[in-house]
Amino acid sequence: MPPPRRVVVADDSTKAATAYQLACEGTALLWQGDFHNARQLLRAMSRRIDRKSNPVRPDAIAAESFHLHRRARGHRARVLGRLLVLLDDDHSLTLRRAPDVRRACTEAYGPPRGDRAVSLTELLGVIGAHQWRKKGVEVPALGGGVRIHPHYGVFSPVRGEYVDLVARTPLPAHPRTAFDLGTGTGVLAAVLARRGVAHVVATDIGPRALVCARENADRLGLADRIEVTGPALYPEGRADLVVCNPPWLPARPTSTVEQGVYDPDGTMLHGFLHGLAAHLHPGGEGWLILSDLAEHLGLRTRADLLTAITTAGLHVTDRLDTSPHHPRIHDTTDPLHSARAAEVTSLWRLTPD
């Protein structure tokens, strides 16, 4: 974020109404009071935003609802992001009742390099990411109790339906090699290796993801079967199976972690499709894991997807579908509820013409 034009000091005496008004006007508030009171102030500011925000009209079409919702979320992030805290030159937070955030901040930002002002919302995200990294996310497809440990800024496999699709789809005959493109935490590479693929090459364009995937492969005892390389989409050579789970929505991300959700203009999707034939051994196939949420939101049509597949010289040999199970599909207050409730995630089996 660019540095604020104006900064004022805020503490336990600062009223939520005052903080909210200043933040809406573009003024940042540097907190110097109690840590838990800062969190309460953040929640109070958040409630004020929610009361004043009603961005989606009942008669709005799906695409308009999506863009209005994204704009409202962006406004919310900017306003709440103006409540700042100061990290000392060792990443410590010297506020009353503040937790020890040094390790979490080192994981997110790297070694300390002087004082750093960060938004409280970002710091809470850093703390949450550290907890996820420490305890991990259980992945039933890898066996009972097996966990994947996501790093800060790497998309976490909390939605397991796409992992289950890869775990239960029949493999091509005797696959020796597989590519996992955009591996993230390395969860799909691990599933393929556990299913018996002898050599899995996992790629990603994100440095954080590459480190994360290597650590997970080593933790699972699969480092001898999973090769993590990048930054790149495709590695050198060919494989019997190429798996890609690109970001599902063709829109622009506004943060690092959103890169796992939003793919501007479908760049990664089209890169996978147009490079697939040249990277498959004879008789090999590609697996595209993709939600149809973009179709329900009016961001892409099914005809657009099928045309992209055909244009790349590919055809569909099979498709396996599943429905999501996350709690948001039952949240009727969500402006995008109807689209989420209708969502289907599919694994498309593709082969060259």
Automatic annotation (TrEMBL):
Tell me the PROSITE patterns matching this sequence. Answer: N6_MTASE
Q: Which domain of life is it from?
A: Bacteria
Q: Which GO terms describe its biological process?
A: methylation
Q: Which SUPFAM superfamilies match?
A: S-adenosyl-L-methionine-dependent methyltransferases
A GO term for molecular function = protein-glutamine N-methyltransferase activity
Q: Where is the Methyltransferase small domain?
A: 147-290
Q: Which UniProt keywords apply?
A: Methyltransferase, Transferase
Q: Which PANTHER family match?
A: HEMK METHYLTRANSFERASE, MTRF1L RELEASE FACTOR GLUTAMINE METHYLTRANSFERASE
Task: Spell out the protein name for this chain.
Answer: Class I SAM-dependent methyltransferase
Which species expresses this protein natively?
A: Streptomyces liliifuscus
Q: What is the lineage of its organism?
A: Bacteria, Bacillati, Actinomycetota, Actinomycetes, Kitasatosporales
